[in-house]
Automatic annotation (TrEMBL):
Lineage: Eukaryota, Metazoa, Chordata, Craniata, Vertebrata
Protein name: Ig-like domain-containing protein
Keyword Protein biosynthesis: no
Organism of derivation: Cyprinus carpio carpio
SMART domains in UniProt: IGc1
Transmembrane segments: 132-150
Length: 158
């Protein structure tokens, strides 16, 4: 307990970037949210694999307190180039929390990059899909015409 309040560790989550951001922008913003904790003694760090990231990080200067619950929340944002946001890269947000007696640093969340299709690859994939449907429907149309012609030929031969 601190100040007659129960100590509560933060809940940590990395918000997934939007589809628009991953498709249309050159950088992707990862947002780490630490919430529902008390007291407000926290620090947030980002790592890629085992290496701490210090550039392109913007963390709230202080935690904000919810007026109703009296619990705190804090966010940190990491900008990553689209080229670096690949499935092999694992980004981790760690919230170090001081509970009144010692630091706890096992409050983490992580996210892997995703394969982001470039505009050319997306255009090719959409065209390939359209060509597939045209081929299928064209083949079906040809089959219907063939059956019709064969029936007409049979009727003439009778």
């Amino acid at each position: 307990k601190e100040n007659n309040r129960d100590v509560k560790e933060p809940e940590v989550e990395i918000l997934k970037p939007s589809g628009i951001e991953t498709r249309c922008k050159k950088t992707i913003t990862l947002v780490c949210v630490a919430e529902k904790f008390y007291p407000d003694h926290v620090s947030i760090t980002w790592t890629l694999g085992d290496k701490e990231i210090k550039e392109n990080v913007a963390t709230d200067p202080y935690a904000t307190q919810d007026k109703t619950t009296k619990l705190f929340s804090m966010t940190s944002r990491l900008k990553v180039s689209k080229k670096e946001f690949k499935p092999k890269n694992k980004y981790r947000c760690t919230v170090n929390f001081y509970n009144g007696t010692h630091d706890i640093s096992d409050n983490t969340d992580e996210i892997n990059g995703i394969e982001v299709l470039s505009v050319n690859k997306m255009h090719f994939a959409m065209n390939a899909s359209n060509h597939f449907y045209i081929l299928i429907f064209g083949g079906l149309y040809g089959l219907v015409v063939l059956v019709y012609v064969m029936r007409k030929v049979r009727m003439i031969n009778l």
